[in-house]
Write a structure and sequence with these properties.
This protein folds into two domains: about 5-210, MFS general substrate transporter like domains (Growth Hormone, Chain: A), CATH 1.20.1250.20; about 245-450, Growth Hormone, Chain: A. It contains 18 helices and two strands. It has helices spanning about 10-15, 20-55, 60-85, 85-105, 110-135, 145-155, 155-175, 175-195, 200-205, 210-225, 245-250, 255-285, 290-320, 320-345, 350-380, 385-410, 420-440, 445-450; strands at about 5, 235. Strands 1-2 form a two-stranded parallel ribbon.
């Protein structure tokens, strides 16, 4: 007798958000807050390290570069590992790297040691975000997926804000090493808890027959009723063309265009994000603004992350990601252009300038969350972790280029008016707008998903053929 075939994706899309996906989302947010704390720790520790060890600002460059290199490696390696051994195991491995790297940073007695162990921390930092995006995308229904992914991603800058608050109380009392100790203890606690509590992705389990009994129990908890007993033939019905390897798959004829545009949008938006994050204050002061205005502008840019990520995600549920994301990216380009115009004026309106900084922050930070959501939506389950991890790695190209471009601008003799630089950044934001709009695999509106998704029925699905 042929067993009943169940499309796991259809079951997930039919399930309620409360309580199981909600609890998983809270776990993801907690881990991402920890990720953000560890990511921003060097920014708060750096000045104290310079004073304590008698270093210059340039001496910290290798430490920060080691973190970025570790993140680039971790994004691909741990994303690939998530596709091979499961999202959960790879995710708790990230927490292990965060613990080991941070505790060894705590005991470092030289810049060389700190550089090495910061690279180990970077491995965990690089893997957390793509794996969180993958896991949460495979546990939540299409109706709320983009909103939940945005809430998870925006937790990273919020974790950085938390690090700034903790730093004010901890470093004066216990010294800069205490920040690394906190960055080690919290991941260790989460490693112990979530190794037990965090469930595996249902779509990953569907692809491994030996896990089908476990998947049946997980889906029964999700639905709140005993509907499956493990004898079913669980499948994930996803389109697309597969090749023999995950990397050749993302570059085959079916996914090539999406991959090119996703990587472009990721890299250019990250370039703009890091320019604003690292140089907005300096640029505004170069444009004749007081230092307190520069500081407030940067704070409002960071605050815009919540408005752009979460607010925009709600609109994606109604209108889909193509128009909402492209519109938000265009708003960022326009806001940046208007900053250039505002700084050219003889009497600059402080309110107008700060409002534009908030809009730019909502756009650029919001697009980071949308890129992860669209990337996870664009690739099939068996390569999703690797594909999203590789996209994040490529985004680091933009992050690494940003300080070089800023340094080149400030080194020009004579240095052009700062409005020229903002016009350049606005042009880059337009590249993000166009490349994001042209991505072929956008998230549809939730009502379109509901209309197109039939009730789950037993069916036999053929395995996609390999591309020759």
């Amino acid at each position: 007798m042929q067993s009943k075939t169940v499309d796991v994706g259809a079951v997930i899309d039919s399930a309620k958000f409360f309580p199981v996906p909600f609890v998983i989302s809270i776990m993801m947010i907690i881990i991402m807050l920890t990720d953000g704390f560890d990511l921003f720790t060097m920014g708060y520790v750096g000045p104290h390290l310079i004073e304590d060890w008698g270093l210059s600002r340039q001496d910290l460059g290798p430490v920060n570069s080691a973190g970025l290199i570790g993140m680039a490696i971790g994004s691909v390696a741990l994303g690939w590992l998530g596709d091979r051994i499961g999202r959960k195991r790879a995710y708790v491995t990230c927490l292990f790297f965060l613990f080991v790297g941070s505790i060894l940073c705590y005991y470092s007695n030289s810049l060389t040691e700190l550089t090495l162990w910061r690279g180990v921390t970077g491995l965990g930092l690089g893997g957390v975000t793509p794996l969180a995006t993958t896991l949460i995308s495979e546990w939540t229904s299409a109706k709320v997926r983009s909103v939940v992914v945005a809430c998870v991603i925006v937790s990273v800058p919020l974790g950085g804000t938390l690090a700034g608050i903790v730093e004010q109380f901890v470093i004066p009392q216990y010294g800069w090493r205490a920040m690394f100790m906190i960055g080690a203890i919290v991941p260790l606690i989460l490693f112990a808890l979530f190794s037990y509590l965090l469930p595996e992705s249902p779509k990953y389990m569907a692809q491994h027959r030996e896990l089908h009994p476990k998947l049946a129990r997980a889906l029964n908890r999700l639905l709140g009723e005993k509907r499956f007993d493990g004898t079913e033939n669980f499948v994930v019905h996803e389109g697309g063309q597969r090749s023999s390897h995950w990397f050749t798959t993302i570059w085959n004829s079916y996914y090539r265009r999406a991959t090119t545009l996703i990587w472009t949008a990721f890299a250019v938006n990250s370039f703009v994000l890091y320019l604003f994050t690292n140089y907005l204050r300096i640029l505004l002061e170069s444009g004749g603004q007081p230092s307190e205005i520069g500081s407030r502008g940067l704070s409002l840019f960071s605050l815009g992350a919540a408005f752009g990520s979460i607010g925009g995600a709600f609109f994606i549920g109604w209108f889909g990601s193509r128009w909402v994301g492209s519109g938000l990216a265009f708003i960022g380009a326009a806001a940046t252009g208007f900053i250039a115009v505002t700084l050219l004026g003889e009497a600059t309106s402080t309110f107008q300038l700060l409002t534009l900084c908030l809009l730019a922050g909502a756009s650029v930070n919001g697009m980071q969350a949308f890129m992860y959501a669209v990337a996870a939506h664009s690739y099939p389950t068996e390569i999703r972790g690797s594909a999203v991890g590789m996209a994040q790695t490529f985004s680091r190209v933009g992050a690494v280029l940003s300080p070089s471009v800023a340094s080149f601008y400030f080194a020009m003799q004579p240095t052009p008016h700062v409005s020229t630089f903002f016009w350049f950044v606005a042009g880059c934001a337009l590249v993000t707008t166009l490349s994001f709009y042209l991505i072929p695999s956008h998230i549809p509106p939730s009502r379109a998903v509901a209309a197109a998704t039939p009730a789950p029925e037993p069916q036999v699905l053929e395995k996609p053929a390999l591309e020759k």
